[in-house]
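job 3f2a | input accepted
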Amino acid sequence: MIGPAFFATIGLLFLLSAIHVFTATLYQSLFGKLPNATLGAIAFAIFALSVVALLTARQLGPRRSIAATGAVLAIAVLIITAIRQEWIDLVLSGAAVVAGTQWLALTHGLRGASRGSPVPIALPVALAVDLVLRSALSTIPIVAAPLALAVPLVLVAALLFLAAGIATLSDALGWAAPTARGALGLLAVGPLFVVAETGGLNGAQAAIAGGLGLDGGPSTQVGLLVLGIGVAAGAIVLARGLPARPTAAAAVAAGAALLWLHLPVLSLAAGAAFAAGIVIAASALTSAPQAEARGPWLSALALAVGWQLFVAGTFVHYGYFANLEALWLLTAFVVVAALLGPPSPAPRWRPLVAGMIAALAILVPAAQLISAVPQASFGQPTPPLTFRVMTYNVHQGFDGGDIPALDRIADTISHEAPDVLVLQEVVRGWLIDDQHDVLAYLAGRLGMAYVYGPTVGDLYGNAILSRYQLTDVRRLSYAKEPGLRYQPRGAIIARVGGDGTLTRALIVVTHLDENSDASAVRMEQVRALLKEVGTAAPAIIACDCNATPDAPELKLITDSGFGDLALQSGGGGNTFPSDQPVERIDYLFGVGLTATQGHVVDSTASDHRAVVVNVTLSIR
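job 3f2a | predicted structure (620 res):
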């Protein structure tokens, strides 16, 4: 089983990469340009094409169908990794998803002379390896890593995939199909991916649910370590041949319930049980006995329906602002499918494989955590009278061309060397954004303390990073207008400087409503913000206001005594879009201070340009 399992594991890692790139590129490229229903229809159509595996199998037979779909999958992911252009990524990732979902159905329906499907071993191993790789690369997926690292790694993986495929497909092959109860498990594979990506194997989500990650520290690394412990426990269960189905059902149910309760410490610890359950369920759901068949029709149909559930759950969760009911329904479906499957045991992992996976799942996140601790400083207690402030909408970690760009964003910020950095559109582990944690990555790269204010669920919002201590933190949520066109918005407020210092400036970051006809909504948000800020001085409001300088909502801010710092200091240029900015919508307002050397940063690392000013406090 080592050869086929190795082949299937690498193929599943390619498929995971294709899914991440496709969902992220579809969302980043077309969100706001097409209705959400249209985006959903595109995603449903792409994943529905997995059912074409039936035609592929009939026309090409076992060897050539698996070889053809596997080749398209691997080559498409390799090109995506090397080229990184928005529309090429969208088209090729869609092709990779179509080929990869077919490849999975065909591989699972393959029957060798003396072996069954390799997927019950490969699927949990692939999920575990994906967690390890994300831990090693600070949540950045390999296909989005720097080219000098990403291209050689993906090329080597493609060559290993080819070699393992040749070895696997040299055997005498035929088709097999599971029983009806076995097909139920395959229906749950798509939902399992959603449950894993949004919670069970999501380090940022586990950490924030457990009370970490709002006020600094290497929280996501802690979350990944806890989940790694869970993955190790799941590997041990599968190696020892313990009852997989009831264990998976119990661990997923208990882990998910406790994680989504958001209980300090307990929800974080529950992440380990959740992760263990995901790993065990990945094997249990795909391990039903299969009998000889004329084609892989039942596997292909069941997996195709499961992919539609994957798209539906993803669409509802993110389209309805981190809706949790969709996740609970899919989690319940996974639990029920695990319990109702045939009583056949999951294939036992070899002790060496289980030991290696368990060690990597713990040691890699632990090493990253140890290396991150010195960078997660709490800042110097006393800021000077003059310091540099930068506001930046980081576009969820994507550049002006909608390509992952965390390294470029970090380089842009480092070049400006701000003492206080405020960020909008901070995403911390969304499936549709490559599951990268923008805040943890930037805080680690820059060596800055941070505070975070979520606005959409736990994993999207605003942040303040600082070289000085951040105290008196407050989080404000604006009243949300009814309807899906209005996103939940809010602000985060903190003082720069320790409690005992005299030099303490109030820092405020907010992101106002984006709808062009929603000036009245933005005015209400500004009123709520000014009421919360009060008469504090010195104070700075950093804002992606989604409004031009003549807008009445901005007049509310200036009429309250706040000056336009960039304009006062010669930096009042346009900020959006970053490639050819035609609008000024990003601002730094201040009271009780003066500003110098204001400027707009010429960079396309995000779809916005950053605004930077040096401020000098007028009072102590």
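job 3f2a | The chain has a mean pLDDT of 94.
job 3f2a | closed
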